[in-house]
Amino acid sequence: MTIGLFIAGMGIFISVVLAGIGSAVGIGLAGQVAAGVMSEDPKNFGKYLMLIALPGTQGIYGFVIGFLVIMKLGILTGTVPSLSIAQGLNVFAAAAPIGFAGLVSAIHQGKVCAAGIEMAAKQPSDVGKALVMGVFVEFYAVLGLLISFFLVWFGINL
Amino acid sequence: MLSRMFKATILGHNPVKEKLISDLHKAGILEIVEIEKEAEKEAGFNDSDTLQAKLQRISKLIEDLNYSANFLNPFKPKKAKKTRSYTDENYQTITRSFKYNILEKIKKFNQQMQQHENRIDYCYNMISLLSPWQKVKVEFDQMNFEHVNTFFGIMNKKKLSSFQKEIERVNLSSFNIIHSTRDNVYFFLMYAKQIEETINEMMKAFPLTAMDFSFVRGTIYKTMTSFKDEIRDLETHIEDIKEQLKEYAEYFDDILICVDYWGMVFQREEIKRKFYATQSTFLLKGWIQEKDIDRLKGLNKKYRETDISFSLPEPGEVPPVALKNNPVFSPFEMVTKLFGVPGTDDVDPTPLLAPFFALFFGICLTDAGYGLVLLILSALLLFKLRKTKGEGTVKLMKVLIISGLFTIIVGAITGGWFGIDFDKLPKAFRAIKEFRDRLVLLEPLKNPLVLFITTLALGAVQVLTGIIIKLFLYVKDKRYYEAFSSPFAWFLIVSGIISAMLLKIKLLWVFPVAGACIILVFTSRQGNILVRLLKGAYSLYGITSIFGDILSYSRLFALALSTGVIALVINVVVGILYQMIVKIPYVGVPMAVIFGIFIVVFGHLFNIVINSLGGFIHTTRLQFVEYFGKFYEGSGSEFRPFKREYKYIKIQ
Predict the structure, then answer these.
(1) ipTM
(2) How many C-beta neighbours within 10 Å does residue B200 have?
(3) Measured between CB atoms, which of A50, A68, A142 is closest to B613?
(4) Dist. CA B511–CA B540, nearest whole Å
(5) CATH code for the domain of A87
(6) B339 in contact with chain A, both atoms CB, cutoff 8 A
(7) How many domains does chain B have?
(8) Is residue B645 part of a domain?
């Protein structure tokens, strides 16, 4: 295995693992609050579920980029590509935006969603507003995904 | 569209009061408003004290019913009915024949159980307290010595050695360790009464927990056994009670029906507070939709003792808002209501957002197969839930059906069918591939930039639509100056820049420049020219937020992409696993097929659910922030008619 391929692999690692950690933490935050709220009032589980699931998308975005990189490198066809160090760094830089944007945005989205669950517990009809607030944070993960996608799709030439 | 609201005033004689309230309650078409009463009249004629007492009695009863229902819930028969659907007559017979004295009995059972459980907790605590001391074999009742004191205590292990040293220095005492754990030692100390003070003085210096065994009869072991026996007794007792409760659990459904019945009675009584009453007449006012007026008139015809009149809202009065749309648009009222209903004189944004909503949702999924699944699933759910669930759920299902249709269209255009890679299909499927290819306009993964730009273009269309709506609203209100200086100018700027850039005609830049000039000069009507220009320049800065809004629609592209890629991933993973499993001898092929089907079905279902959720929320946000921000406030109060609301039952 070349060092270039290793660096490229680190890029996949960054996008999948960092975004995944962010989502796990975010869902964890929201899930804990939901469990607490439901111990008082077991109703409205469906409403809370949406707020819990919301920070989960960053992990998916990271995974999407990771998969696209794998596809682009041709690993799925069974061949192990040999990359120069420069090419590896290129892949790394392409995959990084969603990793970092996903990590931070998912955690903060989890906080917003946790607060939203508390709000929905007191005002069940306002759950839509809580969701919209959560989506505000998500947009920055979307931007990270877009940049990563364009870099992976158009910026990697092997 | 907003429904036109009328104010209804009903004046009647007291004998028909109850009947009329009941009829209004059943019809659910009138939002009754409180009539303000002068204080002395209220004191003279309104029997508000007796009403208050009555309401309190009813709510106490509801509380008791809920309490019993909660308590019985774990004991109810497994095959409890999910939907309790009754005719009006039917369920009132149940409430009439219900034996209310069982509530008292259930309460008693609950109290007994509570007591037993508390006692069991106490016994367990005692057992765990005693168990380290089991080795002490003395009979505690007989431990009363003339010259010797005994002391049982717990101490941290770290202090043990220094404590022992101190003890050794004192004569006439003996120190025994009975039990030790990782951190603590349980010890027994005996000392002559004459040195009591020295020992007490010495022990003060150490953090000890003294044990009080005054409750122990006989040996520790005996006491523990008797606690254990007691627990066993209490547990059988609790089992007995549970057995008996199973009989009462038959009434579980009836109790819930009673909760709903008395809840309804409560609403019916409470509404009387809003009436104006004299000794023999009553007066009530309320809002009603234009379409329901005839129904109310018909209702009223039954009574000779009432008089009804309708009027338009007077100036200064703010009627509640009810939305009225055709069957295609009306499900989207749900989205509008999430944000807030329009004010009385505002425009209803429902038909304006519906097409955008469905289209954007479709773009988030971009898979015809997914759209089909979504359509079928929500149609099934709608069919199943339409009778038992409220209006909101039904509307949500209809929104999903319509959005599913759009998803099929968008998916067909982009060639997404369950993420299948048609280039790799065997030749036998060529006909399917050709059919699919004929529908395709653009493929996101082959040409992502086109879809990206398409989403931004759609964003520009929606933002411009919002600006145009605002323009119309100003013109409708005859506020021509505002119309000219704000939405009109913005329309020139945004559409001008986009068309100039797309068509690459330099002359078109005239429009945005003209728009900018209008905003610079006309934004502020007051102050000297310099202040006006500065204010204009400040609002011109808003251009950044408009282009930020348009860029925000790029999320549609990102969501489309992530749905598509995950669909692809599922298929690829299944393909690889299939190849691997097939190689297992004998069972390979059937196992691979079963495994493959399993992953395909659950993988795609997961993808549909998670991305429908994301698509729904993101689409909603685009409507609320980017679109409504241009023209809509949602400041109205929703029309809430006085109607029967049941929690547990459904009236046929």
Answers:
(1) 0.77
(2) 12
(3) A50
(4) 15
(5) 1.20.120.610
(6) yes
(7) 3
(8) no
